[in-house]
Design goal:
The complex is a heterodimer of chains A (184) and B (465).
Chain A (H helix, E strand, L loop, with lengths): L3 H9 L3 H22 L3 H18 L9 H19 L22 H4 L2 H9 L3 H12 L4 H8 L3 H21 L10
Helix pairs in contact in A: 1-2, 2-3, 2-4, 3-4, 7-9, 8-9
Chain B lengths: L9 H10 L8 H7 L7 H54 L10 H15 L2 H21 L1 H12 L12 H22 L8 H12 L3 H4 L2 H12 L6 H15 L11 E18 L7 E6 L6 E12 L4 E29 L5 E31 L3 E14 L8 E14 L4 E12 L10 E17 L2
Antiparallel strand pairs in B: 1-3, 1-9, 2-4, 3-4, 4-5, 5-6, 6-7, 7-8, 8-9
Protein name (chain A): RNA polymerase sigma factor
InterPro entries (chain A): RNA_pol_sigma-70-like, RNA_pol_sigma-70_dom, RNA_pol_sigma70_r2, RNA_pol_sigma70_r4_t2, RNA_pol_sigma_r2, RNA_pol_sigma_r3/r4-like, WH-like_DNA-bd_sf
Family (chain A): Belongs to the sigma-70 factor family. ECF subfamily.
């Protein structure tokens, strides 16, 4: 079986079969990243396509094939940020109070909340909040890096994260969730 | 990135764990959309370059084709001349008034001369010499396979020339030998020793004519005009006759290796250049990248060196091909709009709100190595100067930077003037414009840059052939 590094090297030679295998290897994960950063599934698909084209066009410049996982994720995140910048003027803040979850089982909601349900909550965040929340909480960037990536100050990043968390907490509270424990 | 996820609050940890490895289903249609946009496999690019090389080779072949076409024609004419002269020689041997045969075997002529001598000297000795000569003739003919056989056949039986090249030496040798002996006897009967010469003097002259040179002494016909001259009573300057024959021989042997050929030149040139850029934002980045400016300092200046060969295709058309080296720099500044709002107080009652903008600079200094093929058309050729136009393509690759290994292509257009400065040396100046056919920026950068060039090419051509 071909390993990941050999696959990367084959992709660097633009081997079409390797590109297909590489795509199949990462398609689920990268679509997950796109879904988090985008407002809708359609937007996520746009970002996803643009990101994959960039990945295959620039995979030659990848000097360490062993770090390909982090590299593709980073590429998708940067593509999502570019998309966010490009569509800034068309964005509108969503009324957060309109969010309605399908799950009504409040007492056990934390256990039954799927990623898709949580994603629906995140999608309802204002764009700037959503970007900062994803970058900081899920992808592990610090505020300084987020500031550079989004073109905002570090303090703006901090305040936007704080507000995003507050909005999410409120919404989760409505669903009966008031405490959070990390999954072991 | 964050140093650790252990010190984050449970709320963040909850979302991190939920989404860190989150995967989502992907519609198969997306791959169908992505696949056509992927870069071509390397071998496809190679095929493109091979095609370009094949076109260049084809053009080169067209240039050299006339030469190769001319060569067989010359050879044919050469062969034809030889055959016609052989035929003339054959006829001449009958009429006793013609040029000698170049390809005739030495042993045959020796045998003939022996026969002649034998006939005119002592009959018994002559008989022995004749038999000996015929024996030599047989041996020589059997050794000399095609050429001797065909030549002999051609001499005595021109119609049989169609048998040239067939390995029927045994039969033909016998036929030729018997015919040659008959012929020798017949011819010898016709020979008349001039009354003013004794037999010995006659023999001495014959031997002298045999030693005159390869051409005249090795054929039967070489002897006959001399014998004719000797037989005639009119005073003839033998040396004049032989010199004429020698001159003709020299003329009849054109050396194919010294045929005039199309000139080939070696060229070197250097070109200071000025880069001018066509810059566009990369894809969707156009909405927040603006105020793009090229820094107008010395960074626009570069240098371009090239060397190669110039092949003459026709009087006015030449093909240039060679390698090139380019050193260029670029520095571009632009502004990126961010989503941070900047509020400025205009006066006590109003405030101006705008997006914050960041100034960025994209600077790059690159070295490129490439190859180019150009067609040069000379449209005006004067005594001192000649004017030409040039068009061609160039492919190069960056030796450094993030775009290293990426192939860039250019269309080169130029106008030039050249002047001869030595026996084989020409100086040329050639204002050239080089138009980039693809952008050079990395796709992950914000800008797409086409680094076009304008330069003043100065170089030397040396004719090497």
């Amino acid at each position: 079986m071909i390993n990941e590094q050999d696959l990367v090297r084959a992709c660097q030679r633009n081997d079409r079969k390797a590109q297909t295998a590489f795509y199949n290897m990462y398609k689920g994960k990268l679509m997950g990243v796109c879904r988090r950063y985008a407002r809708s599934k359609e937007e996520a698909e746009d970002i996803y396509q643009e990101a994959f084209v960039k990945i295959f066009n620039n995979i030659k410049s990848l000097e360490k094939p062993e770090a390909v996982g982090a590299w593709v994720r980073k590429t998708v995140i940067h593509t999502a940020i570019n998309y966010y910048h490009a569509n800034l003027k068309f964005q509108q803040n969503t009324d957060y109070e309109t969010v309605v979850l399908s799950n009504d089982d409040y007492p056990n909601i934390l256990a039954t909340l799927s990623s898709e349900d949580l994603l629906a909550l995140i999608h309802q965040l204002p764009d700037g909040y959503r970007m900062v929340f994803n970058l900081y909480v899920v992808d592990g960037y610090n505020h300084n890096e987020i500031g550079q990536m989004l073109g905002i100050s570090e303090n703006t990043s901090k305040s936007q994260l704080s507000r995003a968390k507050e909005l999410l907490r409120k919404q989760l509270k409505k669903l009966g969730i008031v405490s959070y424990e990390r999954i072991q | 990135m964050n140093a650790s996820n252990n010190d984050i609050d449970p709320f963040e940890g909850f979302f991190h764990d939920k989404f860190n490895d989150f995967e989502s289903e992907v519609d198969d249609v997306l791959w169908a959309n992505i696949e056509p946009q992927l870069p071509l496999p390397s071998f496809s690019r190679l095929i493109l370059w091979h095609l370009a090389a094949a076109v260049a080779l084809l053009l080169l072949s067209f240039g050299l084709l006339p030469r190769f076409i001319a060569s067989p024609t010359t050879e044919l004419s050469h062969v034809t001349t030889g055959q016609s002269l052989q035929n003339e020689g054959t006829q001449g041997s009958k009429t006793l008034n013609t040029e000698s045969n170049q390809g005739f075997d030495k042993s045959v002529s020796n045998t003939q001369s022996i026969e002649i001598n034998a006939h005119n000297a002592n009959p018994e000795v002559a008989k022995e010499q004749k038999e000996e000569g015929l024996e030599k003739n047989k041996k020589a003919n059997s050794i000399a396979e095609y050429s001797t056989t065909s030549t002999n056949s051609n001499i005595y039986e021109p119609i049989a020339s169609s048998n040239i090249g067939k390995r029927n030496t045994t039969k033909s040798v016998d036929i030729v030998s018997s015919k040659s002996s008959k012929r020798a006897r017949k011819d010898a009967n016709k020979k008349v020793i001039p009354s003013s010469l004794s037999t010995e003097e006659y023999d001495r002259i014959v031997r002298a004519t045999q030693n005159t040179g390869d051409y005249l002494s090795t054929s039967e016909e070489a002897l006959e005009p001399n014998l004719e001259i000797l037989a005639s009573k009119e005073p003839v300057d033998l040396s004049v006759k032989f010199n004429k024959a020698r001159i003709k021989t020299l003329q009849r042997k054109p050396n194919r290796y010294f045929q005039p050929s199309k000139p080939v030149s070696l060229y070197f040139s250097a070109m200071p250049l000025v880069n001018y850029y066509t810059i566009t934002p990369n894809g969707s980045d156009s909405k927040y990248v603006h105020s793009i400016q090229v820094d107008d300092d010395n960074s626009r200046i570069g240098v371009y060196l090239q060397a190669g060969l110039k092949f003459t295709l026709s009087d006015k058309l030449q093909l240039k091909t060679g390698i090139s080296y380019t050193k260029s720099s670029q520095s571009i500044s632009f502004k990126v709009r961010t989503d941070s709002l900047v509020v400025r107080s205009v006066d006590n009652q109003t405030a101006d709100v705008a997006f914050e903008e960041q100034n960025k600079t994209y600077a790059l200094s690159s070295h490129y190595l490439g190859t180019r093929v150009d067609l040069e058309y000379t449209f005006l050729k004067g005594d001192a100067l000649s004017h030409h136009a040039l068009v061609g393509i160039e492919g190069n690759t960056s030796l450094n930077g993030t775009a290293a290994g990426k192939i860039n292509s250019f269309l080169n257009i130029g106008y030039g003037i050249s002047r001869q400065i030595g026996d084989n040396a020409y100086l040329f100046i050639e204002p050239t414009m080089s138009i980039a056919l693809n952008h050079q920026s990395d796709a992950s950068t914000l800008l797409l840059v086409r680094p076009n060039k304008i330069g003043f090419n100065i170089g030397l051509n040396f004719k090497i052939k």
